[in-house]
Amino acid sequence: MLCALAPVATLAQTTISNTATILWDAGTSRAGQYSNKVDIPVRPAPPAGPPKLSTFHLSDSSGGGSSLAVPTTMCQTSAGLEEIKISGVFAGVELNPATVTPATSIRAGEPLIIAVDSVLDNADPLTIDLLTITLTTPGGDAETLRLQETGVNTGKFVGVIRTAAIPPMPVKSDCVLSVRPGDSLNLSGLRSSTGTLIASAPLEILVDPFGIVFDSGDGKPVPGSRVTLINADTGQPASVFGDDGVSTFPSSVITGSTVTDSSGARYVFPPGDYRFPFARAGNYRLLVEPPAPYSAPSLARPADLADFRRPDGPPYTIVDGSYGLVFRLSDPAPVRIDVPVDRPGGALILTKSASQPAATVGDGIQYRISVRNGDAVRSTGAITVTDILPPEMRLRKDTVRYNSSLTAYTVSPDGSTLTVPLPALRGGGSGLITYLLEVRPDAKPGMTMNRASARDNRGAQSPIADATVRITRDGLGDRMTIIGRITDGGCKIAPEAATGIMGVRVMLQDGSYAVTDSEGRYHFEGVLPGLNVVQFDPSSLPAGQVPQNCTQNARAGGSAISRFVEGQGGALIRVDFRSTVGDNLSRPDADIAK
Q1: Residue 339 bridge partners (DSSP)
Q2: Could you give the CA distance from residue 147 to residue 132 in angstroms, rounded to a whole number?
Q3: How far apart, in Å, are the Cα atoms of 161 and each of 113, 142, 150, 336, 364?
Q4: How far apart are CA 242 and CA 40, in angstroms?
Q5: Are the C-beta atoms of 519 and 500 separated by less than 8 Å?
Q6: Is residue 28 classed as helix, strand or coil in its secondary structure?
Q7: Apex CA 450: angle with CA 446 and CA 454, to 5°?
Q8: Bond into 290 cis (ω within 30)
Q9: C-alpha 345: how far from chain center
C-alpha cells in the first residue's frame, strides 16, 4: 500500500490545497482512492521595516490620550527577574490597558512607557512573543527589561520602567532608570542577546522645579541660600514629594546641601543648586533667602545677566519666578528657574573734566564724566550718575551722550540736577558721558563748580568728582590782544624790511589758532589776562623755510617757535617770529633782534 500527499501551491497563490491518495493491490489489479481536499489560507508576511522605539507617559483619561496595553514587565536584577510595580502617586493606575500620550519629555520620577515596534521579533505569529532589551542613558545607567508583545502577531512590544533623578548617581540593574534633570538625551534600546542597537528615541527630562541660585555680579553659584517653595494660593509652604512621588520632601532646601526625604533617600545638591522633585499642579513662588551680604529678589535685569553661563555651559534661565513672582506648575511643562541674587559691588570710580578753563556769556563748554568699575571680576548693577549743575550754566538740549551715542536723561524742574541712568558695567569696564553746558546771560563773573557722583542699584557709591570753570565778563577792559608777524630773512633783516610769510598757523595754549595773512600778520582778540603761550606750527612754513630764534630772553625759552606772553586786561602785546631759508642758523644780530 502506498500513501502520498500532494500539496499544490505557487508563489502567487494565497491558499495551499492538500489531497491524500491511497493505492493498493487487489489480486492482479491495483486500486486507489483520493481523500478530500484540505485548503490552508496563507497570509502574506508584513513588510519588515526597521524597529522603532517610542516613549509614552501615563495621563488622565479625562485629558485625552489613547489606550495602550502595557503587559507585565520583568526586569533583570542581580538576584534574577523581578516584576516592575508602579508606586507613589501613580500607584493603582490601570496599565492593561493604560491611557497614555506620546512623551518627548517626562519628569524625573514618573513611570516611562516603552514601546518597540519590531516585525522581525514577531517570531511566532500564533503566540505572544517576548523581547529582551537593555535601556541605556548618557548618565551611565543600564536596565534590562523583558517586554511582552501586546497581542498575538502584533509585532509591538511594550513595557514600563520607573525613573529617578540624578543625583544620586545611577545604580545599574536596580529596575529604576536614572536620568539627569534638565537634560535632553537619546534613550537607546539594545538587543540583549547581541548588544546591538535596536533603536533610540529623544527624551527631555523635566523636574518641578529646579535651578541654580547665582551671583548677579559674576554668574557664580551661591551655596548656602535657603529656597522655599510657597503655594501662591495659600501663602503657605507647599507640599513636596520625593522622586518616588509619595515620600515627603522638605519645602525648604539649602543650595549646595544634602537633603533626605521621608523614605531615607538622599539628594546631594551641587553648589548653588536647588530642586523640588514633585509638586502638584498649581500656582507657586520661590522665597529665596541668600547668605549675607547677598539680597533677593535681584534688581538686575535679564539683559544684565544674558552673558553669564551655568557651570554646565548653557545660559541661565531667567523668568518671572526668578524674581519671586508667581509661576504655574503644570504637567509636563518645563520648570527650570534660575535665581540671581545681589551682592554690594566694589567701588565705582568717577572722573570729570571740562573742555576749557574759562568761558563767557553764551559759550558752550563740554563736560566729560568717565565711569569705571573698580572691580576687575564682578559686574556692577544698573548705574545712576547725578550731576549738580552750577547756577551760572544751563544744559544745552539733546547733547547728553553715552559712549558717543545719544542717551536718556532727566533734568530737575529748576535745572539744577542732571540725572543719567546707565547700564551695568562688566568687571573692569568703563563708560563715558559727555554733554554741553552753556553760560547763562545773567551769569556773574567768578569760579563755578559742578559735582557729579554715581551709584548702582546694589549700593556701590563713587566719590564725588568735580570740574571748575571761570566765568568772565566779555568786555575790552577784561581781555588782552596779541598781535604779531612772521617774516623770513632770519635775524639779519629788520622786521619792517623783511617779507611776511602767508599761511602760517599760530596757536594759543587753549587750542585756538590763527593763520597769517599776505603780509605775515596774525592776531588774537579777547585773550584771558595772565600767562599765555603763543606758538606757530613749523610744518606750515613754505618749503625750504626753517624757524630761527632771534629773541635772547627767557620768554623764548630757547625755542624758535614759541613765546611766553603775560599781560593785564586791555593790554596789546606783540609777538613776532622769524624764519630763514635752508639751514642758515647764524647767531642773532643784537641790533635787529627784538
Answers
A1: 213
A2: 6
A3: 7, 12, 16, 24, 78
A4: 58
A5: yes
A6: coil
A7: 170
A8: no
A9: 20
Q: If we measure between CA atoms, which residue out of 199, 170, 169, 204 comes closest to residue 185?
A: 204
CA–CA distance, 220 with 562 (Å, rounded to integer): 58
Say how far apart CA 465 and CA 351 lie, in whole Å.
6
Instruction: List the pLDDT tens digit at each of the 594 positions of the chain.
Output: 545 545 544 444 467 777 788 877 777 778 777 778 777 776 555 555 688 999 998 875 555 678 898 999 999 998 999 999 887 667 777 788 888 888 887 777 788 999 999 988 888 889 999 999 999 888 889 999 999 999 999 999 999 999 887 777 889 999 999 887 767 778 888 888 888 888 888 887 776 789 999 999 889 999 999 999 999 999 999 988 887 666 889 999 999 999 999 888 889 999 999 999 888 778 999 999 999 999 999 988 898 888 899 998 899 999 999 999 999 887 545 588 999 999 887 678 999 999 999 988 778 899 999 999 988 888 888 899 999 999 999 999 889 999 999 999 999 999 999 999 999 888 889 999 999 999 887 788 889 999 999 988 887 888 999 999 998 865 655 678 999 999 998 888 887 888 999 999 999 998 899 999 999 999 998 887 778 999 999 999 999 899 998 887 888 888 899 999 988 767 899 999 999 987 544 434 433 333
SS (H, E, C) 258-324: EEECCCCCEEECCCCEEECCEECCEEEEEEEECCCCCECCCCCCHHHHCCCECCCCCECCCCHHHHC
Q: What are phi and psi of 571, to 5 degrees?
A: -75, 150
Q: Which amino acid makes up residue 179?
A: V
Q: What does DSSP assign to residue 589?
A: P
Q: Which amino acid is at 347?
A: A
Angle in degrees, CA 448, 451, 456, rounded to 5: 165
CB 178 within 8 A of CB 141: yes
What nine digits make up the cell of 324? 519671586
Type of residue at 465: A
- Percentage helix, strand, coil, to 5, in the chain? 5, 45, 50
The one-letter code for the residue type at 23 is L
Q: Which letter, b or e, does each residue of 336-369 get, where b requires 16 or more Cβ atoms within 10 Å of its Cβ?
A: bbbbbbbbebbebebbbebbeebbbbebebebeb
As given in the structure block, the three cell numbers for residue 458 are 546694589
In 3-state terms, what secondary structure has residue 353? strand
DSSP character for 477?
G
Q: Which helix (H) or strand (E) holds 33?
A: strand 29-41
CA distance 523 to 506: 9
Do residues 117 and 92 lie in contact, with contact meaning Cβ atoms separated by under 8 Å?
no
For every residue of 58-81, DSSP letters joined together read E--GGG--EEE-----EEEETTEE
CA distance 515 to 521: 8
For cell 515596534, the residue is 117
